[in-house]
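HUMAN:
Just now I want nothing more than another pair of eyes on a protein record. I would be glad if you read both lines and explained how they fit together. I have put the entry right below:
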Amino acid sequence: MVTTVENLHETIIKDWPFSVKAVGLEANIIREILKISSRPGLINFAGGLPAPELFPIDDLKAAAVRAIEKHGAETLQYSLSQGILPLREAIAHRMSAHVHMDFTPDIIQITSGSQQGLDLVGRAFLNSGDYVLTERPTYLGALQAFNFYQCRYCTAELESDGMNIAEAEEKIRRHNPKLIYVVPNFQNPAGITTSGEKREALVHLSRKYQIPIIDDNPYGELRYSGERQPSLKELGGNAVIQLGTFSKIVSPGLRIGFIAACPEVMTTIERVKQSTDLHSSTFDQWVLLEYINSGKLDSTHIPLLRDEYGKRRDTMIEAMERAFPPDVTFTRPEGGLFLWVRVPSKLSASAALNNAVEAGVAYVPGKPFYPHGDNDNCVRLNFCNATHEKIKEGIRRLAEVFRSLI
């Protein structure tokens, strides 16, 4: 056999020993479903994408020019691992304005999106075999981030007002988890908002058993109805590590998120960040800062998102009320991007996805959102990334799929 560059390359690759952790990673089903999103005529309710037509493109363009003009080469240079100080000051100011406590820039760590925030928390806290307490269902991205550290999960049922507290305490006593992970505002995937009473109960559990709470809060500023609940950070102080992001309220392409934690925790988080990527994009941080300082994010852009996304939520709910079979139920979120559909137990949402795609509509089956994969009769829908017309048509198609399979 003649050895060529091609077959030599193939032989080497086959012999390379990937780590057990890397080999054990599963593909993100949402990313896989998005691969089919270019299919002509497909209406995609699957991803967590915000509406691109609402991105503040002109304002970000102007912010980028101002960043270069005002700060020059500094915007293109290496920067602090914790993040540039002016942006951390701006984030601390915004957080203080939304809650009844004062935040300072020293408790803010800039991350490359909130997904990296999850990874940094996992790196900082989790050893192989450790337990994490989560809602059931919970955010798939958190499971992916934590799975790399070979942790295990104990879960408490997500009810209409948040995690079942009695079940959560029973799981804490049995498994002694390292972390409590929750999405209290417009939960991904279910759209549920945790009540004030249950937020206080979670903080009580955290303090009683000395377990940090990870409050993942990417959607908190996207409320369309109902009353604001106090944040877990507001109630729990140093017991809570809060994750935030500008992906849903500005642009996911900027990849700017943050962690808010007490200085004692932040020291370790910063070291972990240094070992990961040194720092998040300096240029993107300066651009975001200029956009925030322009005042347009809070004065015009977020109100625009609340208005339009709220209308799209209402359009989807009204369409489902008209078209869905009576034994298909769904949540009515007060904010965020998602709602949760429950179909009869005899129907596999994973298997029905093929039928839905053939009918020209895509969703995310609920099974991957369960840490133990023990429920396959739920569906997550994104109501923010489609026009009103596509929402109505997509729900009509999905209703026909459900009716044909039930």
The chain has 15 helices and 14 strands. The chain has a mean pLDDT of 94.
